[in-house]
Sequence to fold (666 residues):
Amino acid sequence: MNADDVLVVQNAVKVFTVRRRSLKRVSMTAVDDVSLTVRRGETVGLVGESGSGKSTLGRAILRLLDLDGGKVLFEGQEIQGLSEREFRPLRAKIQMVFQDPATSFNPTMTIGQTLVDAMRLAGHLTLKQKEQRALALLDQMQLDERFVALYPYEMSGGQLQRVALARALAPEPDFIFLDEPTAALDMSVRGQIINLLLSLQRQSSLSLIFVSHDLRVIRYIADRVYVMYLGQVVETGTKRAVFESPRHPYTRALLAATLIGQAERGEMRRAGMLAGEVTHRAPDFAGCRLYGRCRHATDRCAREPQALRAVAPDHWARCWRAEELAQSGWPAESGSVKEGLPTESQQATA
Amino acid sequence: MALVDIQNLRVQFHVGRDVVYALRGVSMQVERGTRTAIVGESGSGKTVTATSMLRLLPPTARITEGRILFQDTDLLALNENELRQIRGSQVCMVFQNASAALNPLYPVGQQIADVYRQHNGGSKREAWQRAVEVLAATGIPHPEDQARNYPFEYSGGMAQRAMIAMALVCSPQLLIADEPTTGLDVTIQVQVLDLIQEVVEKLNATLMLISHDIGLVSVICDRVIVMYAGTVMETGTASQVLEHPANPYTIRLLECFTGTDGEEMPFIPGRVPDLREQWQGCSFARRCPRAQDICWREAPTVRQVEPGHHSACHFS
Fold:
């Protein structure tokens, strides 16, 4: 662990047990051997669709649930297994911004009260100082002082999400976990949040994990990117590496689907498309999790577990064909989609 | 002559003591055989326009002015019985949250079969058979088993496929899809859009696709109508509007989606106007970088930019 690593997740595992219609219990590995590092002042983009495990991972980092395996180190301190009392001093340092601004505020409190309340953990401040700091935070979010007296329902989604950011900043955290903070906002105002975060980053050494399935947003905000699929990291690297030379078929499909309105639509879309839906395999299935949806799959993909391995400096992917496919220009005909394997088709539960 | 001709439609919502002016004189034509996208952000009035067509507006809504002609029939002048002849059989609607649009108490196949019998008659066995067929046609794996399953056993993408299957048994002339891919995973969104396109082609139907995602609609639509704050801003072919936008709002909105090479992410400053207010000038004036005095005084009329391409802007 390096001195400038703020957050280190090592081999995190979380297994949920779900009861099927037949009342049979089935275990589902929501987070499967995930390792991740966030350095000081860095923004890590965490990308994945429903069921990828990104929210579960987030809850583990915020100590809202316990892992079944692995470690979470925050500034060198293991936080799994801490009691609530022991963890409390860290709460101020680890903050969160939720997806839906409309439901993440107390509707009976004004914005000013909400912000002052968020400074409870900063016990050294007097009420007067807290109020001044609330105003300063709003100003930083480009909201003028009349917002102090407003209730959440009187504000737009974009404004509220800026308040959510102010609230997260209030106790002077070192790290903020942002769970799809722009997903509920209109495209024309997403940029406001993103640009505010970018300017915050320039002014401070704050570290962020920014969860999103929208690569259009990740492209602006992230320094490094982790792409998750069904509980595993399938590709990780610098933003440039992942966006400009994706090495995993899933990353490519996500890019093709997200940036679809742009010039390169058409061919890339067809070639990059995935078949079917997110499919949970039977627990004894050893192969690649994307098998059955991937157009480049071969028989070997069904049999062999895929390891996350370096494909270039600072760039890892979980696909044994990564280099070969990239070199040959991702031929669409190289494999037909495989069907008929024992599948546990079921939509993931968060 | 257009399949759908909406003329100067005005819709208000009465919420408590407030009046929300949701549609402020919307006119648009949808030609037969086209795949027309209605694009706009929250509050633009795109969904209100669509739900007005089938008169599915909530009780707080009032249509105060305008006509909606569907094949020369004014849908607003029909009584409930006459309207029922059109709903489903001639105009079908696919909703945003498909899982919520299905009845949770009945198997999906049964719901499709009921719709089929309502429109075509026939025996229950035949209707069930047809339901399984259309589920298969929309790419649902193991359709015979899935037909017996309940909506909660369907994923979001599958539920949307089932809704589209329901539209298939009705063979409507017009399919209205209201944000059919919102809330679905991005890799599934493309699949659902492709399916909609396939179904529309198979039925030889006209499509109205309502979406906030201007990038996504370009995949399957040939015409685009852009709305903002209850008014139509720009209309034209997909390439006219998306590649050579004439209206400042469209231009700025497209930038937000496609991005620029700069460090900062583009956005449109300010917010959508409060729809409880009424104003004189252009709806977009307060956020528009090009706004002049006239934009605050006078609402722009729709003018032709080039054949088939119109924009409501004083400076287009």
Chain B touches chain A through 39 residues (CB under 8 Å). The mean pLDDT of chain B is 92. The longest strand of chain B covers residues 18-30. Chain B has twelve helices and twelve strands.
